[in-house]
Every structure is written in structure tokens, then in C-alpha cells.
Specification:
three-stranded parallel beta sheet, alpha/beta, 13% strand, 3 strands
């Protein structure tokens, strides 16, 4: 996928099962902004994300990810 700095998957069919693919593709390594708003993402899927060290903006509005998992 190259160097992705911003990814908007808002209102897509994104589900927890897709999160492992993000790690395989190393999307989180360089991503600065991720928008998963209004998707079926839950705490279980969010926990699968690794290497979000450069992330500065994350939109989880309308998902089932709880604040405790993000902190």
C-alpha cells in the first residue's frame, strides 16, 4: 500500500476481522489519521491494532469501541 498517512473508512463495512490485515500491511506504522467512524468496530477488533505510535487523530464515533480500550 505504500506510505499511508491518512485513511478514512467511515461508514464502510469495516469489522473486527479486518484489523489483523491492518497489522499485516503495517498501516498503523505510518498512519497519522484513522477514521473508523460509523463502522461495526468493537473493543475486540480495536485491541488487534498494533504500532499506532505516530497516530495523532483517531475517529471512533458511532463504533462500539469503549474509551477504556483507547486510553
Amino acid at each position: 500500500l505504500g506510505n499511508i498517512s491518512e485513511l478514512n473508512l467511515s461508514k464502510s463495512t469495516l469489522r473486527d476481522e479486518h484489523m489483523a490485515l491492518f497489522n499485516e500491511l503495517k498501516v498503523g506504522t505510518l498512519a497519522l489519521k484513522l477514521d473508523f467512524s460509523h463502522t461495526a468496530l468493537t473493543d475486540a477488533g480495536f485491541e488487534k491494532l498494533d504500532n499506532l505510535r505516530l497516530l495523532s487523530q483517531l475517529n471512533l464515533v458511532g463504533t462500539k469501541v469503549t474509551p477504556l480500550k483507547v486510553a
